[in-house]
Amino acid sequence: MKTGTAGTAGTAGRAGAGGTAGVAGVAGGAGTALATGTVGAEGGGGGGRMRRTLLAALVAAAVVFPISAAASAEAPAPAPVSLAEDVAPQVRYAANRANLAEAARMAQEGERTGRAARLRTMEAAGAAQFLAFDGRGKGRAVEVFGELESADRVAVLVPGSDTTLDTYERFRAGAVALQQRLQAEHPHSAVVAWLGYDTPGTVSTTVLTAARADVAATELAPFLDRLGSMAAPGARLSLLCHSYGSVVCARTTTGPAVSDMALFGSPGTGASAARELPTGARVWAGRGSGDWVANVPHVRLGGLGFGSDPVAPSFGARVFTAGAAGHSDYLKPGTESLESLAAIVLGTTPASEASHA
Protein backbone atom coordinates (compact mmCIF):
# COMPACT_ATOMS: atom_id res chain seq x y z
CA MET A 1 0.00 0.00 0.00
CA LYS A 2 1.57 3.27 -1.07
CA THR A 3 1.96 6.07 1.38
CA GLY A 4 1.09 8.66 -1.25
CA THR A 5 -2.29 7.09 -1.95
CA ALA A 6 -3.21 7.13 1.71
CA GLY A 7 -2.27 10.79 1.70
CA THR A 8 -4.89 11.44 -0.96
CA ALA A 9 -7.48 9.96 1.35
CA GLY A 10 -6.28 12.33 4.05
CA THR A 11 -6.83 15.34 1.81
CA ALA A 12 -10.35 14.20 1.08
CA GLY A 13 -11.04 13.92 4.79
CA ARG A 14 -9.74 17.41 5.59
CA ALA A 15 -11.89 18.86 2.85
CA GLY A 16 -15.04 17.60 4.53
CA ALA A 17 -17.02 19.53 7.07
CA GLY A 18 -17.06 18.70 10.75
CA GLY A 19 -15.00 16.58 13.07
CA THR A 20 -16.19 13.19 11.78
CA ALA A 21 -14.74 13.71 8.33
CA GLY A 22 -11.53 14.69 10.04
CA VAL A 23 -10.95 11.04 10.95
CA ALA A 24 -10.42 10.26 7.28
CA GLY A 25 -8.26 13.35 7.06
CA VAL A 26 -5.83 11.98 9.64
CA ALA A 27 -5.39 8.96 7.39
CA GLY A 28 -3.08 10.87 5.11
CA GLY A 29 -0.36 10.79 7.73
CA ALA A 30 -0.92 7.19 8.75
CA GLY A 31 0.21 5.47 5.60
CA THR A 32 3.76 4.74 6.72
CA ALA A 33 2.72 3.21 10.01
CA LEU A 34 0.14 1.14 8.19
CA ALA A 35 2.59 -0.14 5.63
CA THR A 36 4.92 -1.40 8.33
CA GLY A 37 2.09 -2.95 10.27
CA THR A 38 2.72 -0.88 13.40
CA VAL A 39 -0.15 0.41 15.45
CA GLY A 40 1.89 3.20 16.97
CA ALA A 41 2.83 4.27 20.44
CA GLU A 42 0.79 6.49 22.71
CA GLY A 43 3.34 9.22 22.11
CA GLY A 44 3.99 12.29 24.19
CA GLY A 45 2.11 10.96 27.19
CA GLY A 46 -1.21 11.33 25.39
CA GLY A 47 -2.44 8.08 26.91
CA GLY A 48 -5.47 6.13 25.75
CA ARG A 49 -7.03 9.03 23.88
CA MET A 50 -4.01 9.42 21.61
CA ARG A 51 -3.89 5.68 21.02
CA ARG A 52 -7.57 5.54 20.09
CA THR A 53 -7.15 8.45 17.68
CA LEU A 54 -4.22 6.79 15.95
CA LEU A 55 -6.00 3.47 15.68
CA ALA A 56 -9.01 5.15 14.15
CA ALA A 57 -6.73 6.92 11.68
CA LEU A 58 -5.13 3.63 10.71
CA VAL A 59 -8.51 2.05 10.07
CA ALA A 60 -9.46 5.01 7.92
CA ALA A 61 -6.23 4.89 5.96
CA ALA A 62 -6.61 1.21 5.21
CA VAL A 63 -10.28 1.05 4.34
CA VAL A 64 -10.51 4.18 2.19
CA PHE A 65 -7.72 3.11 -0.15
CA PRO A 66 -9.22 4.08 -3.54
CA ILE A 67 -10.05 1.06 -5.73
CA SER A 68 -12.36 2.57 -8.32
CA ALA A 69 -13.16 5.58 -10.41
CA ALA A 70 -15.58 8.18 -9.13
CA ALA A 71 -19.17 7.94 -10.22
CA SER A 72 -20.56 10.34 -12.77
CA ALA A 73 -23.07 13.05 -11.97
CA GLU A 74 -26.59 11.90 -11.24
CA ALA A 75 -28.55 11.06 -14.38
CA PRO A 76 -32.31 11.19 -14.99
CA ALA A 77 -34.07 7.82 -14.95
CA PRO A 78 -37.58 6.37 -14.62
CA ALA A 79 -38.87 4.85 -11.40
CA PRO A 80 -38.24 1.09 -11.15
CA VAL A 81 -40.99 -1.25 -12.28
CA SER A 82 -43.31 -2.64 -9.63
CA LEU A 83 -44.16 -6.33 -9.93
CA ALA A 84 -45.93 -8.85 -7.73
CA GLU A 85 -43.62 -11.17 -5.79
CA ASP A 86 -44.89 -14.28 -7.57
CA VAL A 87 -44.14 -12.99 -11.08
CA ALA A 88 -41.95 -15.41 -13.04
CA PRO A 89 -38.30 -14.48 -13.65
CA GLN A 90 -38.78 -14.20 -17.42
CA VAL A 91 -41.50 -11.57 -16.92
CA ARG A 92 -39.22 -9.65 -14.58
CA TYR A 93 -36.38 -9.79 -17.09
CA ALA A 94 -38.51 -8.30 -19.87
CA ALA A 95 -39.93 -5.53 -17.68
CA ASN A 96 -36.53 -4.51 -16.36
CA ARG A 97 -34.92 -4.56 -19.80
CA ALA A 98 -37.55 -2.07 -20.92
CA ASN A 99 -36.90 0.08 -17.86
CA LEU A 100 -33.14 -0.06 -18.47
CA ALA A 101 -33.60 0.99 -22.11
CA GLU A 102 -35.72 3.94 -21.00
CA ALA A 103 -33.10 4.93 -18.44
CA ALA A 104 -30.45 4.89 -21.18
CA ARG A 105 -32.64 7.07 -23.41
CA MET A 106 -33.30 9.57 -20.62
CA ALA A 107 -29.62 9.72 -19.69
CA GLN A 108 -28.69 10.42 -23.30
CA GLU A 109 -31.30 13.16 -23.62
CA GLY A 110 -30.11 14.61 -20.33
CA GLU A 111 -26.57 14.77 -21.75
CA ARG A 112 -25.29 12.15 -19.32
CA THR A 113 -23.58 10.35 -22.16
CA GLY A 114 -21.26 8.32 -19.95
CA ARG A 115 -24.14 6.84 -17.95
CA ALA A 116 -26.13 6.27 -21.16
CA ALA A 117 -23.26 4.32 -22.72
CA ARG A 118 -22.86 2.16 -19.61
CA LEU A 119 -26.56 1.38 -19.54
CA ARG A 120 -26.56 0.38 -23.19
CA THR A 121 -23.71 -2.01 -22.41
CA MET A 122 -25.76 -3.46 -19.56
CA GLU A 123 -28.62 -4.15 -21.96
CA ALA A 124 -26.40 -6.78 -23.59
CA ALA A 125 -28.27 -6.60 -26.91
CA GLY A 126 -31.58 -7.38 -25.24
CA ALA A 127 -30.39 -10.58 -23.58
CA ALA A 128 -29.72 -9.28 -20.06
CA GLN A 129 -31.63 -10.87 -17.17
CA PHE A 130 -32.39 -8.37 -14.42
CA LEU A 131 -34.57 -9.35 -11.50
CA ALA A 132 -34.47 -5.71 -10.43
CA PHE A 133 -33.16 -2.46 -11.86
CA ASP A 134 -33.22 1.15 -10.67
CA GLY A 135 -31.36 3.72 -12.75
CA ARG A 136 -31.85 6.59 -10.34
CA GLY A 137 -28.90 8.07 -8.46
CA LYS A 138 -26.00 5.65 -8.06
CA GLY A 139 -28.38 2.92 -9.17
CA ARG A 140 -29.23 -0.62 -8.16
CA ALA A 141 -29.30 -3.79 -10.22
CA VAL A 142 -29.83 -7.49 -9.59
CA GLU A 143 -28.71 -9.51 -12.61
CA VAL A 144 -28.89 -13.26 -13.26
CA PHE A 145 -26.33 -15.24 -15.24
CA GLY A 146 -27.48 -18.71 -16.26
CA GLU A 147 -30.90 -20.38 -16.15
CA LEU A 148 -32.16 -19.58 -12.68
CA GLU A 149 -35.33 -21.67 -12.84
CA SER A 150 -33.43 -24.89 -13.49
CA ALA A 151 -30.42 -24.14 -11.29
CA ASP A 152 -29.82 -26.22 -8.18
CA ARG A 153 -26.58 -24.36 -7.36
CA VAL A 154 -26.96 -20.60 -7.09
CA ALA A 155 -24.26 -18.14 -6.06
CA VAL A 156 -25.23 -14.65 -4.89
CA LEU A 157 -22.44 -12.08 -5.21
CA VAL A 158 -22.57 -9.14 -2.79
CA PRO A 159 -20.20 -6.31 -3.77
CA GLY A 160 -18.24 -3.85 -1.70
CA SER A 161 -17.80 -0.09 -1.69
CA ASP A 162 -18.11 2.14 -4.74
CA THR A 163 -20.03 -0.43 -6.77
CA THR A 164 -22.59 1.58 -8.72
CA LEU A 165 -24.05 1.62 -12.20
CA ASP A 166 -20.99 3.62 -13.21
CA THR A 167 -18.60 0.88 -12.05
CA TYR A 168 -20.93 -2.03 -12.76
CA GLU A 169 -18.84 -3.48 -15.58
CA ARG A 170 -16.15 -4.82 -13.26
CA PHE A 171 -18.78 -6.35 -10.95
CA ARG A 172 -20.47 -8.01 -13.91
CA ALA A 173 -17.14 -9.34 -15.20
CA GLY A 174 -16.60 -11.23 -11.94
CA ALA A 175 -20.10 -12.71 -12.10
CA VAL A 176 -19.55 -13.85 -15.69
CA ALA A 177 -16.22 -15.45 -14.82
CA LEU A 178 -17.75 -17.36 -11.92
CA GLN A 179 -20.70 -18.52 -14.00
CA GLN A 180 -18.45 -19.79 -16.76
CA ARG A 181 -16.38 -21.70 -14.22
CA LEU A 182 -19.47 -23.23 -12.60
CA GLN A 183 -21.03 -24.15 -15.94
CA ALA A 184 -17.92 -26.04 -16.98
CA GLU A 185 -18.46 -28.45 -14.10
CA HIS A 186 -22.15 -28.16 -13.27
CA PRO A 187 -24.56 -27.00 -16.03
CA HIS A 188 -27.46 -26.46 -13.62
CA SER A 189 -25.92 -23.46 -11.91
CA ALA A 190 -26.58 -19.73 -11.86
CA VAL A 191 -24.95 -16.60 -10.51
CA VAL A 192 -26.85 -13.57 -9.19
CA ALA A 193 -25.00 -10.25 -9.07
CA TRP A 194 -26.79 -8.44 -6.22
CA LEU A 195 -26.21 -4.71 -6.29
CA GLY A 196 -29.29 -4.25 -4.14
CA TYR A 197 -28.03 -1.56 -1.79
CA ASP A 198 -26.39 1.86 -1.78
CA THR A 199 -22.73 1.02 -1.35
CA PRO A 200 -20.55 3.45 0.60
CA GLY A 201 -17.83 5.42 -1.14
CA THR A 202 -14.30 4.22 -0.59
CA VAL A 203 -13.21 7.74 0.32
CA SER A 204 -15.84 8.46 2.96
CA THR A 205 -16.54 7.93 6.63
CA THR A 206 -19.56 5.74 5.78
CA VAL A 207 -17.22 2.94 4.68
CA LEU A 208 -15.83 2.79 8.23
CA THR A 209 -19.17 1.97 9.85
CA ALA A 210 -21.85 -0.71 9.49
CA ALA A 211 -24.70 1.75 8.86
CA ARG A 212 -25.05 0.98 5.13
CA ALA A 213 -24.62 -2.73 5.82
CA ASP A 214 -27.42 -2.75 8.39
CA VAL A 215 -29.82 -1.26 5.85
CA ALA A 216 -28.61 -3.59 3.10
CA ALA A 217 -29.14 -6.66 5.27
CA THR A 218 -32.83 -5.84 5.58
CA GLU A 219 -33.03 -5.94 1.76
CA LEU A 220 -30.83 -8.98 1.21
CA ALA A 221 -32.55 -11.35 3.67
CA PRO A 222 -36.03 -11.27 2.06
CA PHE A 223 -34.45 -11.37 -1.39
CA LEU A 224 -32.72 -14.65 -0.52
CA ASP A 225 -36.02 -16.09 0.67
CA ARG A 226 -37.69 -15.18 -2.63
CA LEU A 227 -34.74 -16.38 -4.68
CA GLY A 228 -35.06 -19.90 -3.32
CA SER A 229 -38.56 -20.13 -4.77
CA MET A 230 -37.38 -18.96 -8.20
CA ALA A 231 -34.65 -21.59 -8.55
CA ALA A 232 -35.02 -25.36 -8.91
CA PRO A 233 -36.67 -27.19 -5.98
CA GLY A 234 -34.18 -27.76 -3.18
CA ALA A 235 -31.63 -25.41 -4.74
CA ARG A 236 -28.54 -24.73 -2.69
CA LEU A 237 -27.69 -21.03 -2.28
CA SER A 238 -24.24 -19.62 -1.50
CA LEU A 239 -23.45 -16.05 -0.47
CA LEU A 240 -20.14 -14.76 -1.80
CA CYS A 241 -19.33 -11.48 -0.09
CA HIS A 242 -16.52 -9.16 -1.16
CA SER A 243 -14.90 -6.43 0.93
CA TYR A 244 -17.60 -4.22 2.51
CA GLY A 245 -20.09 -6.78 1.17
CA SER A 246 -18.83 -9.12 3.88
CA VAL A 247 -20.11 -6.63 6.46
CA VAL A 248 -23.51 -6.80 4.74
CA CYS A 249 -23.59 -10.59 4.72
CA ALA A 250 -22.50 -10.79 8.34
CA ARG A 251 -25.66 -8.89 9.29
CA THR A 252 -28.03 -10.82 7.05
CA THR A 253 -30.27 -13.44 8.61
CA THR A 254 -30.35 -16.43 6.29
CA GLY A 255 -32.72 -19.35 6.06
CA PRO A 256 -31.92 -23.03 5.51
CA ALA A 257 -31.59 -22.60 1.73
CA VAL A 258 -28.29 -20.75 2.25
CA SER A 259 -25.70 -23.45 2.78
CA ASP A 260 -22.49 -21.43 2.58
CA MET A 261 -21.27 -17.89 3.18
CA ALA A 262 -17.83 -16.92 1.86
CA LEU A 263 -16.12 -13.71 2.99
CA PHE A 264 -13.22 -12.56 0.84
CA GLY A 265 -11.17 -9.38 0.85
CA SER A 266 -12.94 -8.63 4.12
CA PRO A 267 -11.87 -5.81 6.46
CA GLY A 268 -13.82 -7.57 9.23
CA THR A 269 -17.50 -8.12 9.94
CA GLY A 270 -18.14 -6.39 13.24
CA ALA A 271 -18.44 -9.82 14.91
CA SER A 272 -15.69 -11.42 16.96
CA ALA A 273 -16.44 -14.97 15.76
CA ALA A 274 -18.25 -16.78 12.96
CA ARG A 275 -20.67 -18.34 15.42
CA GLU A 276 -22.07 -14.88 16.16
CA LEU A 277 -23.35 -14.40 12.60
CA PRO A 278 -27.13 -14.80 12.12
CA THR A 279 -26.82 -17.80 9.84
CA GLY A 280 -26.72 -21.57 9.99
CA ALA A 281 -24.56 -21.66 6.85
CA ARG A 282 -20.96 -22.77 6.82
CA VAL A 283 -18.81 -19.64 7.04
CA TRP A 284 -15.68 -19.42 4.88
CA ALA A 285 -13.01 -16.75 4.69
CA GLY A 286 -10.15 -16.14 2.29
CA ARG A 287 -7.62 -13.45 1.47
CA GLY A 288 -5.10 -13.24 -1.35
CA SER A 289 -1.47 -12.47 -0.60
CA GLY A 290 -1.70 -9.39 -2.83
CA ASP A 291 -4.73 -7.87 -1.09
CA TRP A 292 -4.02 -4.55 0.61
CA VAL A 293 -6.93 -5.13 3.00
CA ALA A 294 -4.61 -7.42 4.98
CA ASN A 295 -3.14 -4.20 6.41
CA VAL A 296 -6.44 -3.05 7.90
CA PRO A 297 -6.10 -2.87 11.70
CA HIS A 298 -8.68 -5.20 13.21
CA VAL A 299 -10.07 -2.81 15.76
CA ARG A 300 -13.46 -1.32 16.54
CA LEU A 301 -13.53 2.05 18.25
CA GLY A 302 -16.64 4.11 18.84
CA GLY A 303 -18.46 2.53 15.91
CA LEU A 304 -15.48 2.81 13.54
CA GLY A 305 -13.85 -0.33 12.14
CA PHE A 306 -14.96 -3.95 11.98
CA GLY A 307 -12.99 -5.83 14.60
CA SER A 308 -11.76 -9.42 14.30
CA ASP A 309 -10.00 -10.68 11.20
CA PRO A 310 -12.21 -13.30 9.45
CA VAL A 311 -9.18 -15.36 8.36
CA ALA A 312 -7.73 -15.54 11.88
CA PRO A 313 -8.07 -18.97 13.54
CA SER A 314 -9.85 -17.38 16.50
CA PHE A 315 -12.69 -16.20 14.24
CA GLY A 316 -13.62 -19.81 13.51
CA ALA A 317 -14.33 -19.63 9.75
CA ARG A 318 -13.20 -22.31 7.31
CA VAL A 319 -10.22 -20.68 5.62
CA PHE A 320 -9.78 -21.24 1.88
CA THR A 321 -6.68 -20.32 -0.07
CA ALA A 322 -6.91 -17.42 -2.48
CA GLY A 323 -3.45 -17.50 -4.03
CA ALA A 324 -1.89 -14.19 -4.94
CA ALA A 325 -5.20 -12.38 -5.47
CA GLY A 326 -5.24 -8.62 -5.11
CA HIS A 327 -8.28 -6.87 -3.69
CA SER A 328 -10.12 -6.80 -7.01
CA ASP A 329 -8.80 -10.11 -8.41
CA TYR A 330 -10.72 -12.84 -6.58
CA LEU A 331 -13.03 -13.68 -9.48
CA LYS A 332 -10.57 -13.39 -12.33
CA PRO A 333 -10.45 -16.44 -14.66
CA GLY A 334 -7.74 -18.95 -13.88
CA THR A 335 -7.06 -17.77 -10.35
CA GLU A 336 -6.83 -20.03 -7.32
CA SER A 337 -9.37 -17.84 -5.56
CA LEU A 338 -11.95 -18.42 -8.29
CA GLU A 339 -11.37 -22.18 -8.08
CA SER A 340 -11.89 -22.10 -4.31
CA LEU A 341 -15.08 -20.07 -4.54
CA ALA A 342 -16.48 -22.30 -7.29
CA ALA A 343 -15.83 -25.36 -5.12
CA ILE A 344 -17.72 -23.75 -2.23
CA VAL A 345 -20.71 -23.03 -4.47
CA LEU A 346 -20.74 -26.52 -5.96
CA GLY A 347 -20.44 -28.18 -2.57
CA THR A 348 -17.35 -30.15 -3.47
CA THR A 349 -14.60 -30.57 -0.90
CA PRO A 350 -12.33 -27.63 -1.75
CA ALA A 351 -8.86 -28.87 -2.45
CA SER A 352 -7.85 -25.32 -1.65
CA GLU A 353 -9.18 -25.33 1.91
CA ALA A 354 -6.29 -24.51 4.15
CA SER A 355 -5.55 -23.90 7.77
CA HIS A 356 -4.57 -20.34 8.55
CA ALA A 357 -0.83 -19.86 8.76
What topology does this entry show?
Layout: H1 3-15, H2 18-26, H3 31-36, H4 47-63, H5 89-109, H6 113-123, E1 130-134, E2 140-146, E3 153-158, H7 168-185, E4 189-195, H8 211-230, E5 236-242, H9 244-249, E6 258-264, E7 282-286, E8 318-319, H10 336-346
Parallel strand pairs: 3-4, 3-5, 5-6, 6-7, 7-8
Antiparallel strand pairs: 1-2, 2-4
Helix pairs in contact: 1-2, 2-4, 5-6, 7-10
Descriptive account of the structure:
This protein is α/β, with parallel strands linked by helices. It has helices at 3-15, 18-26, 31-36, 47-63, 89-109, 113-123, 168-185, 211-230, 244-249, 336-346; strands spanning 130-134, 140-146, 153-158, 189-195, 236-242, 258-264, 282-286, 318-319. Strands 1-2-4-3-5-6-7-8 form an 8-stranded mixed beta sheet. Helix 2 (18-26) packs across helix 4 (47-63).
Question: Which structural class is indicated by helix and strand composition?
Answer: alpha/beta
- Please state roughly what percent of the residues sit in beta strands, choosing from under 5%, 5-15%, 15-25%, 25-35%, 35-45% or over 45%: 5-15%
Order of helices and strands: HHHHHHEEEHEHEHEEEH
Query: How far apart, in Å, are the first and last alpha carbons?
Result: 22 Å
What is the count of β-strands? 8
Radius of gyration: 20 Å
Q: How many DSSP helices?
A: 10
Catalogue the unreliable spans.
Answer: 1-47, 50-72
Give helix % range. 25-40%
Going across the biggest sheet, name each strand in turn.
Answer: 1-2-4-3-5-6-7-8
Q: Name the overall outline.
A: globular
Overall mean pLDDT score?
82
For the biggest sheet, the summary is: 8 strands, mixed
